[in-house]
Amino acid sequence: MRLFKTPEHECSYYPERRAVMSVLDPHDPTLPERYGAALAHGFRRTGGMLYKPMCSACRACVATRLTVADFRPGRSQRRTWQRNRDIQATWQPPLPDAEHRTLYRNYVQARHGGEEAERDPFESLTAPFPTTLFLELRLEERLVGLAITDRVGDGLSAVYTAYDTTLAQRGLGTLAILHQMAYARAEGLQFLYLGFWLDQHPQMDYKRRFVPQERLIGGRWLLIENETPGK
Predict the structure, then answer these.
(1) Range(s) of the domain holding residue 147
(2) Does some domain include residue 40?
(3) pLDDT tens, 182-205?
(4) What is the pLDDT of residue 228?
(5) Strand, coil or helix: what is 196?
(6) How far apart are CA 164 and CA 104, in angstroms?
(7) Which end of the chain is more exposed for a tag (fewer CB within 10 A), N or C?
C-alpha cells in the first residue's frame, strides 16, 4: 500500500507548532480491511483517510488503547456511572440529523469556538468503509451526548465525542467511554482505541485516567498500569 506525506501545516493541538501527517492511500481498495491493522500501528481515521503524525521535532501524540479484559473503572468513574443512571444510552446507525449537528456545533463552540463550529462534522467523522455506530446519550429524551464509534476487526475506535457542556458535572465524556467499553466487552472485542494522548494537554490529557492502558511508544505497545499525572 502506498503511503503519502502531507505538506507541513498548523498543528491541530498546538497552533504554534507545525505538523506533518503520514496518510495511507485513500483510494486503495484494500483500505477497509487494513483499518484494524492500521489502528494497531498508531493510525487514526478522519473521513475516509487513515493518518498518523510524522512530525520531525515533536512526539507529543501518543496512540492509546484499552485492553477490554483488563480494564477496571476507577472510583471516580464508578461514581460517574452511578450519577448518570438516569441517562439512556442507545446504539444507533450513523445517520446524522439536525439534533446531532446542533449538539456538535454547541459543543465545539463552547470548547473551541471559531470556524470549526460552522463546519459539517459528519464529513470527517463518518466514512463509507468502517462499521460506524452512534452512541446516543439522552436525558428525558433530549440528546445530551453523542459518541461516534467505529467497530473494526478486534476492537472499537472512539472517533469523536460531543456532549452538552452545560452538564459538565455529569462527566458525559467519561460516561461515553464507559459505555463503549461495556459494548466492547459484551461483543467479545479485545481493544478500545482512544486515539492520541497528549501529556498535560487541556483537551487530551484526560485519557490518562483510564488504566490500565497501553501506549504506542517506539513502535511497541507498552502497558501503563497507573495514572501518572505530569509524566
Answers:
(1) 73-198
(2) no
(3) 999 999 999 999 999 999 898 888
(4) 56
(5) strand
(6) 9
(7) C
Backbone angles phi, psi at 228, to 5 degrees: -130, 80
Count the residues in the chain. 231
20: its cell numbers: 506533518
Task: Give the confidence band of 124 by pLDDT, cuts at 50, 70, 90.
Answer: confident
Cell, residue 107: 459543543
Q: For residue 136, is it within any domain?
A: yes
pTM of the model: 0.93
What lies within 8 Å, CB to CB, of 202 at 6+ separation is: none
**Phi, then psi, of 114 in degrees rounded to 5:** 70, -160
CATH of the domain at 79: 3.40.630.30
First-to-last C-alpha distance (Å) of the chain: 36
> What whole-number distance in Å separates Cα of residue 33 and Cα of residue 93?
20
Query: What distances in angstroms separate CA 83 from CA 135, 138, 175, one per listed residue?
Result: 18, 14, 10
- The answer to whether position 146 is within a domain reads yes
Q: For residues 60-85, give the mean pLDDT.
A: 96
Interval 33-55: pLDDT, tens = 999 999 999 999 998 899 999 99
Q: What would the grid cell of residue 10 be?
A: 498548523
Q: 25 in a domain, yes or no? A: no
- Amino acid in the structure at residue 179: H
